[in-house]
Amino acid sequence: MRNGLCPRCCLRLSLLCLQLSIRQRLNFLKNAVKKSAIHFVSRCRWSVFGASLMLAFSAQAEEHFYFSSLPVVASVSRLPQRLADAPTSVTVIDREMIRNLPIRDLNDVFRLVPGFQTYPNNTEAARVTYHGLTDEEFSPRLQVMVDGRSMYSPAFRNGTNWALIPVAIEDIERIEVVRGTNAVSYGSNAFLGVINIITVDPSVVRGFSVSTSYGNQNVRDYSLRTGGKLGEAGDFRFTYRQQNDDGLRDRYDWTDSYFSRLFDFRADFALTERDSLQVSAGHVDAVTQRGRLKFDNAVLKSDTGNPFRDFEQSNSYLQFQWRRALSNDSDFQLRYAYSVDKGTEAYVNPNNGAPYIYDPWGAEGSRHEIEAQHNIRLFETVRLAWGGSWRQDAVRAQTTLAGQGDVSRDVARIFGNLEWKPSSWLTGNLGLSGEDDSLAGPHFAPRLSVSFHLDPENTLRFGTSRAYRTGSTVDYKGDWHNGAKYQFRGDPNMPSERMDTVEIGYLGDWRDWRMSLDVRLFNEKVYNRLLVIDRNDGLDSDPDGMLPIQDVRMRGVEYQWRWQPFNSTRLVLSQMFIGIDAEYLASALASNPSSTLKGATKYSLIDKLSEYGTPHRSTSLLLIQKLPYGLEFSAAGYWQSNMKWSINTEALKYRRVDTRLAYPFRWAGRGGELAWIVQSANGAHFEYKAYNNPADRIVERRQWLTLRLDF
Question: How far is it, in rounded angstroms, from Cα 62 to Cα 16?
Fold first, then answer.
């Protein structure tokens, strides 16, 4: 105890003080902002709001929650750090920004993060990736966590199924996005970056809240949230959410729909003045539609070889987190998590009289994970976060792991991150982790970063790191037959991907101007890029395999600029420019003389997949504006050049504008909000698959009304 406060309270108070906002005005910039706002709104074809925006600038609302100084983050080194001290770039998306975004699905949030790409839920669950390498359906190179629990699933090939993220948007406190590899802190699947979703503390959720959304494309959403006390020392919150829509429109032979339900529970207990316990549990299930149409005697019918069917997916989880404040400068935490993922799209393929059950994504996977972490200040200038974890994955799959039953995998790892601040102008970060995988073998991931604080507002950072990405259980142990065809065989000796990164970062935190700028210049070299390749074209007895085929280099620059010129106005601009080139491995060409790599067409498609796995240019711009009469307006614009999500598809360049107009209200002593959201307000475009016409997936204008009532 110190001055009557426990160590945990002291820590919370210190973090709060670091995040206090700076209240300053920039009157001399008012005219410039007016012109920028008018131009942006007119480009969005929402000129009806122009006059209102001008009135809002003059009103200068009293609320100041839109602006705060750069926050403290913990997702990079596992140590609470100022952004200026962190060893790589981090984008923080706070609760107020999320609340004001014109979105319905969580993955849409990441359109605002430089270097990130996503697309809507359709016949395949939405995907989120960073800097490309997009060939696999569930994006296994980006670590996604919710309250410390990894969303990677053994059932979905060591990837993240965004249809099963177990958190409602309204329950998110903040999202920390690490832009750059972070295998040092979170293991091999944090290959390209980390998304850390931190949920709302139950102590701030009281009473009941219900909401519903109703719109075109059969948008029908419902949610219920409640929270309260659990005895003298506990708080809880519970959320139920249901989403439904008819998916994307297709010009020819596809159809899709999307349905999901979520049950999410979290309870926090203050056990003693030093100990706390967090308990989380929940279940998510989702259904997307798959299959194609085919002409049969000039009649368009369901394709018997690929009929319409439901892809059913689910996730159930339980997690305990115990924290103990050992002293003012030291704490310990222990976490245990258990999860079960399931998926099936099984159907009987007639196969010309030799039927077989086809279920390529049919699997059931379970995971046990335990992790311990100790944070301590060793000296006045040195802090350390270190610990270890063990997890056991088990997966059963009738199609891809035929006849093998439950296939287990054990992964043990240790990690450490050291921060050294010998003076006010210098911060050094050193990280190292070791991982031993029962299928992939051992790997070591180092990171070194040095930040020079030129003055309190300007920081220059230099960093280098190495990371490894291991494959899924199917990649190592797969045995997949489709009738008479031997579809896929795993390789127990498959090498891991490796990425070496060199980066230069700049962070400007101009508090007097209420503005910040985060710039990252990167040079990322991926060795042994893995891709599924047909080992012998035209020979059904020789199966496909996951093979190392290329070295890929990605070089570019990305930045995010934030500005709050007025208390009622918030602007966020993000851009990325990238160049990618790839070189085939001599071993891949020599060891598979009859493989698909020898075909000029496939060879060219793989080249294009590597080069355009991410758009070479992408931009996003967000405006959040408080209007007179309590109205709130936001508009988000996205500009993206063409890219490829897979070998056989292409996403054309597009421009997209989303808007939101909301009216928070109080009626009869109760609160609520009425909001109108329009996505793709500027018209239809392609984001996911554009084959050769007419088999294109079209993202059309989607709009809905949302009503929320708080009791």
Answer: 21
Distance CA 533, CA 540 (A): 13
In the chain, the amino acid numbered 287 is V
Helices (H) and strands (E) in the chain, counts: 8, 39
Q: Cis (ω within 30 of 0) for the bond into 694?
A: yes
> Residue 70 gets which letter from DSSP?
P
377-384 long-range contacts (CB < 8 A, ≥24 apart) are 377/329, 377/330, 381/420, 381/421, 381/422, 382/418, 382/419, 382/420, 382/421, 383/79, 383/418, 383/419, 384/416, 384/417, 384/418, 384/419
Residue 469 corresponds to which tokens in the numbers above?
């990405």
CA-to-CA distance for 394 and 410, rounded, in angstroms? 9
Name 81's bridge partners. Answer: 73
Tens of pLDDT, residues 76-114? 999 999 999 999 999 999 999 999 999 999 999 999 999
* b/e map 77-111, b = 16+ CB within 10 Å: bbbbbbbbbbbbbbbbbbbbbbbbbbbbbbbbbbb
Residue with tokens 């040079």: 523
Closest CA to 447 of 432, 436, 460: 432
**Amino acid 249: pLDDT:** 78
* CA–CA dist 349, 358 (Å, integer): 6
pLDDT at 621: 98
Residues in Cβ contact with 559 at an 8 Å cutoff, skipping those fewer than 6 apart: 114, 517, 518, 519, 520, 574, 575
The encoded tokens of residue 283 equal 């279940």
The angle, 0 to 180 degrees and rounded to 10, between the axes of the packed helices 30-43 and 50-59 is: 150
Amino acid identity for residue 253 in this structure: D
Number of C-beta neighbours around residue 458 at 10 A: 15
> Pairing state of beta strands 142-146 and 193-199?
parallel
Query: Percentage of residues in the chain with pLDDT exceeding 90?
Result: 70
The answer to which of 25-29, 175-179, 204-208, 630-634 has the lowest mean pLDDT is: 25-29
Neighbouring C-alpha atoms within 13 Å toward the C-beta of 120 = 24
Task: Residue 400: name the closest of 534, 288, 543 by CA.
Answer: 543
> How many degrees, rounded to 5, is the angle at CA 62 between CA 58 and CA 63?
120
Inter-residue contact 85 to 73 (CB < 8 Å): no
Instruction: State the maximum Cα–Cα separation within the chain, in Å, rounded to a whole number.
Output: 85
Asked if 570 and 623 touch (Cβ cutoff 8 Å), the reply is yes
Which residues, 6+ apart, have CB-to-CB distance to 679 below 8 Å? 102, 104, 656, 658, 701, 702, 703
d(CA 249, CA 258): 12
519, 557 in Cβ contact below 8 A? yes
For residue 299, the model assigns a pLDDT of: 73
Spatial separation of the C-alpha atoms in residues 290 and 359, rounded to whole Å: 12
d(CA 411, CA 220): 41
3.40.140.10, 3.40.50.150, 1.10.150.240, 2.40.170.20: CATH of 21-710: 2.40.170.20
